[in-house]
Design a protein that fits this description.
The protein is of the alpha/beta class. The protein has 13 helices and 14 strands. The strands form 4 sheets. The chain has a 5-stranded parallel β-sheet with strand order 2-1-3-4-5, with helices on one face.
C-alpha cells in the first residue's frame, strides 16, 4: 500500500462498540481531524482503530509491518496495552485530543519515511514501518499521559467530553454509573400528576451552589471580596481573580456539593478581610465550582417554581472545554441556542430523558447562561439541519482543545 506525501491517512474502525463507532464516524466525517479521514475497508487503510478489550482479528498485528499499516488500540485504563511494533494506545473513554496526537505521530512517521524513500530511491516500501533510529520512534503511552492521567483530570475534570456525544442506547455498566453519578436515576414524570411533580424539584437555598452564586453576585455588585459563612467552615470569594478559596478536602467537598445542609449559610461583604492561608489552602475557579455544585445538587431535579412549559432563553454558551460535562449536554445546548422550546419540549423532541435536561438547565442557570422566558410561545419542530450545523461548530471548538 502506498500513501502520497501529505495526503490524509485512511482510517478504518474495527469492531468497536456502537457508541464509540458512531462518535468516531462523526468525528472523521465532519473533517474535524485534518490529518485523517474515514476509510471503509481494513485492507487499504493506513490506520486501524481497534478496541483492545473486544474481540478482533489477532492476525492483524504480526502483519502490520508487511502491510505498511498501524493500529491505535483503545483500552481500559486498568488493562495493559499492547506494545508491539506499529501499534499505539489510547485509554478509554477516548479523549479526542489524545487520539489526534497519536494520528499526528503516525502521519509524521509515514511522511518522514516517504521523504527518505524519495531521497534514496532504493528504499523498500516497508522502511517506514521499521523501528526508527533517528529520534522518530513513537513516544510511549506513559510519556504522553495516556495512562493514569491524573493531572489532566485534576486540572479540567472533564476527561469525558466525548460522553456528551453518546446516545441513550449505551447500556454498559460504566456508562450507567456515569449517568447516575451526574444526573441521578429519576424516571421521566407525567407533569399532570402532582405526586410525580414533587419528585423533580429541590430548594436551592439548602444547597451550597445557591450561596456561591449569591457570593459572586454580591462581589460583582459591590466590586468587593465576599465571605460565605457555613456551619462547616467558611469560603472566601476573591472578586479580582474570580476564585473561591476554602479548606475542605475532596471528600468533604463532594459531600457538601450534593447535600441540603446550607440553609443557615450567610453571604457577607469582606472588602477588608484578609485570608489566613491555613484556613483557605484550596482554591478553585468560581464558575467551575458553581457548575459542579449545581450538577451535584440537581441530580435530575429543578429549582422550586421552575416552569416545565415556558420557553427557555439561552443567554450565552458555557465554556464546555473547561467545565464538567456529561452525556447529551452539547445536543441540549445546541437545541436551546437555535430553538425556542420548553424543558418538556426539549426532552420530547430530542428524545432524551428529562433528568439530563433538568440537570443541565440547573447548572446553566447557576452560571447565568439560561433563564425561563416569561412569555409562552410556540416552539415548532426542531430544524435538524440548522442544529447539525451548530453542533458541528461546537464539536470543532471542543476537539481543538
Amino acid at each position: 500500500m502506498n500513501i502520497q506525501h501529505n495526503s490524509k491517512l485512511k482510517i478504518s474502525l474495527n469492531n468497536l462498540d456502537d457508541i464509540t463507532q458512531n462518535t468516531l464516524k462523526f468525528f472523521f466525517k465532519s473533517n474535524l481531524c485534518e490529518k485523517a479521514e474515514l476509510n471503509i475497508k481494513d485492507d487499504n487503510a493506513n490506520v486501524l482503530i481497534i478496541d483492545l478489550d473486544r474481540q478482533y482479528n489477532k492476525e492483524i498485528i504480526p502483519n502490520l509491518k508487511k502491510n505498511n499499516q498501524f493500529v491505535i488500540f483503545l483500552h481500559n485504563e486498568m488493562n495493559t496495552p499492547l506494545s508491539e511494533e506499529n501499534t499505539y494506545n489510547v485509554t478509554k473513554p477516548v479523549q479526542i485530543k489524545y487520539l489526534k496526537q497519536q494520528i499526528s505521530f503516525i502521519a509524521q512517521r509515514i511522511n518522514d519515511a516517504k521523504k527518505s524513500n524519495d531521497d534514496s530511491g532504493d528504499a523498500t516500501k516497508n522502511n517506514f514501518a521499521a523501528p526508527a533510529n533517528d529520534g522518530q520512534s513513537k513516544p510511549s503511552s506513559q510519556s504522553l499521559g495516556l495512562i493514569n492521567n491524573k493531572s489532566h483530570t485534576q486540572n479540567f475534570e472533564n476527561n469525558h467530553l466525548n460522553m456528551a456525544l453518546k446516545n441513550s442506547t449505551d447500556s454498559s455498566t460504566l456508562n450507567q454509573y456515569k449517568a447516575h453519578k451526574h444526573v441521578g436515576s429519576n424516571r421521566d414524570i407525567n407533569p399532570d400528576n402532582p405526586e410525580e411533580l414533587n419528585k423533580i424539584y429541590h430548594n436551592p437555598k439548602k444547597y451550597l451552589y445557591h450561596h456561591l452564586v449569591q457570593a459572586v453576585k454580591l462581589g460583582k455588585d459591590n466590586k468587593s471580596n465576599v465571605l460565605i459563612k457555613t456551619l462547616f467552615g467558611n469560603l472566601f470569594f476573591d472578586y479580582k481573580s474570580q476564585v473561591l478559596f476554602h479548606s475542605f478536602d475532596n471528600a468533604k467537598m463532594r459531600y457538601f456539593k450534593s447535600s441540603p445542609l446550607f440553609i443557615e449559610t450567610k453571604v457577607v461583604k469582606a472588602s477588608l478581610f484578609k485570608m489566613a492561608k491555613k484556613d483557605y489552602s484550596i482554591s478553585q475557579d468560581a464558575e467551575s465550582l458553581i457548575w459542579q455544585s449545581a450538577i451535584s445538587a440537581s441530580k435530575g431535579r429543578l429549582p422550586l417554581g421552575t416552569s416545565l412549559t415556558q420557553a427557555i432563553e439561552m443567554n450565552c454558551w458555557p465554556n464546555f472545554s473547561r467545565l464538567l460535562v456529561f452525556r447529551y449536554v452539547i445536543q441540549i445546548a445546541a437545541a436551546w441556542s437555535t430553538h425556542h422550546m420548553s424543558l418538556l419540549d426539549t426532552a420530547s423532541q430530542l428524545k432524551i430523558p428529562q433528568r439530563y435536561i433538568f440537570t443541565l438547565y440547573n447548572a446553566m442557570l447557576a452560571i447565568g447562561c439560561v433563564k425561563i422566558d416569561n412569555v409562552i410561545q410556540g416552539t415548532g419542530k426542531i430544524n435538524r439541519k440548522k442544529m447539525k450545523k451548530v453542533f458541528s461548530k461546537i464539536l470543532s471548538h471542543i476537539f481543538s482543545h
